[in-house]
Amino acid sequence: MEDIELPKKAKTHKGKVYLNSLLPKLIEDPKQCVFINTKTSSELMRMVLNDLYLTRKDYSKKLNQKEEISNLLQSKSDVEYLCDKNNCALFTYTTDQKKKPMNLVMGMLYNKSILDAFEF
């Protein structure tokens, strides 16, 4: 661990601990998943989201506040911001619109940008 040099010098012990947490590890931590509740989600899709959350409860975060998320194909910044804020590499959210009823979107991030996204 001493071979790799930190990008910045830490001024405090807390800063040094944080910078060391950014370094590569031999055994990586399990990937965290964020389950996002949107404003356009129906009650049935909220129950599906809750069931998915319960399967990965130890390694996931559920956002109960109804978030405003635009279409993933138009703007990725909303989802990337929420995943970066909660330190999660996986995301899942639901929407319910006239053209796309009962839409479930699951995806994965790499380097804080969306790598894969699947719509069901």
General description of the model:
The protein is of the alpha/beta class. Helix content is 26%, strand content 29%. The chain contains 3 helices and 5 strands. It has helices spanning 13-21, 43-55, 77-85, and strands at 33-38, 60-67, 90-95, 103-110, 113-119. The N and C termini lie far apart (43 Å).
Could you give a quick summary of the protein structure above?
The protein has helices at residues 13-21, 43-55, 77-85, and strands at 33-38, 60-67, 90-95, 103-110, 113-119. It has 120 residues and is α/β, with parallel strands linked by helices.
Map the helices and strands:
Elements: H1 13-21, E1 33-38, H2 43-55, E2 60-67, H3 77-85, E3 90-95, E4 103-110, E5 113-119
Parallel strand pairs: 1-2, 1-3
Antiparallel strand pairs: 3-4, 4-5
How far apart the termini lie comes to 43 Å
Structural class, from secondary structure content? alpha/beta
Strand order of the largest sheet: 2-1-3-4-5
Proportion of strand residues: 25-35%
Q: Mind summarizing the main beta sheet?
A: 5 strands, mixed
The amount of helix comes to: 25-40%
Order of helices and strands: HEHEHEEE
In round numbers, the mean pLDDT is 86
| Low-pLDDT segments, ≥5 res | none
